[in-house]
Description:
Layout: E1 9-12, H1 18-29, E2 32-36, H2 50-64, E3 65-66, E4 70-78, E5 81-89, E6 97-98, E7 101-106, E8 109-112, H3 115-125, H4 143-153, H5 160-165, E9 169-170, E10 173-174, H6 176-181, E11 191-197, E12 204-211, H7 215-229, E13 233-237, E14 240-244, H8 249-262, E15 271-275, E16 279-285, H9 294-299, H10 308-316, H11 326-333, E17 342-345, E18 349-355, H12 366-376, H13 382-389, H14 393-405, E19 409-412, E20 419-422
Parallel strand pairs: 1-2, 11-15
Antiparallel strand pairs: 2-5, 3-6, 4-5, 6-7, 7-8, 9-10, 11-12, 13-14, 15-16, 16-18, 17-18, 19-20
Helix pairs in contact: 7-8, 8-11
Amino acid sequence: MEFRESKNVELKEKFTKSLLKTVSAFSNFHDGEIYIGINDKCELVGLPKINEEKMVIENSINTTITPKPFFDMNVLEIDGKSILEIKVYKGDNGPYYYQNTAYMRNDTSTIPLDGSNLTRLILNSKNLTYDQMKITQSNLSFNYLKEKMSSILDVTDINQAVLTTLGLFSDRTYNNGALLLSDNGGVSQSYIDIARFKLDTNTFMDRKRLENQSLLQHFDQSMTYFQTQYPSYQTIEGIQRTTKEQVPLVAFREALSNAIIHRDYLLNSGVQLSMFENRIEIVSPGGLPEGMDEEQYYRGLTSLSRNPIIANVFFRLKLIEQFGTGIKRILDSYRHYNTKPSFDIQKSQIRIILPVTNFDYTKLEKKEAILSYLRAYPNSSRQSIEDVVRIEKNTLIRRLNELGEIGLVSKSGNGLSTVYYCR
């Protein structure tokens, strides 16, 4: 039987109090196993007086970790050595504290929880979302929400009954959802940073920051700014004049609302809107909500929301369509164009890239064209670059190699599966 440390396995030569931190970490987040009697080289050294040690460790766990965790202890006899196995189970009553500190695993290490992760753990243990969390603030105003409710739903007064129906008020108390939708909540991480550039971030054009106001006002002002920067244009197809969009309005609306509604408000950063001549990048703090994978995200197979109260208000105000269909609508909005959006899902953020449908890369200098195209279409094949940028194959390969040598372009894959992206 081989032993290796991992996120779920901890090896100890002997009992030390650091073991109790690992019990806290496993209890808080996931089942795990601790083996005592195995050294740092993963060698079996055994544990003398194992039955006495077992009682000492069991007592230490039960008396120093609050609330009491769930665990089993077993004595294993391996190659003539006595090993103590402790199986720790994720609890339902967390956070589990050791000496007033809750812990988590970071690969093979055990570290204290920071403020945002601790709050997230507390919410999960109570089956609450951030926007459902009650607050002490009581002097909130909702003039912008009232204006939206009046124009869209013909509701002319925002009283406690309406706020209760919207899920913003219960037991004579507001929640974080109300705070985010109020005019004067002042949530520091609730902002949208809009920056306008040429083709890259080296050429700055304009910047504005939307903060200290309702999420609904953030949304409306961002939509207005978008429409001034990317107006529709006319084309002649045959004998007909057709109106087309530089960036589909539906795509931007859905990407923006997703970023506002589904972002992680426990992270101390705002939504970033970067507007370029050939693309828009929308970055939302926080990865996918717990319980959602990438396949579900792309295919709209779930309506799981990180902030269901905010999502419900946006839905009632007709700012979003049916729950769980946003990504599909973004993709569908590009169906009639020879281009498509890109998605970059990371643990700490989600980035959506909406390309400008009529941008002409052939008018750029060759290297600039390649870089601009890869920023709008990361992970592109050589053939797709060649088709759009209109560079002869051998010249393109040479240019890509040159850009790779100076650290601007990387590639992954082999043969026909090779793709290129900007660093």
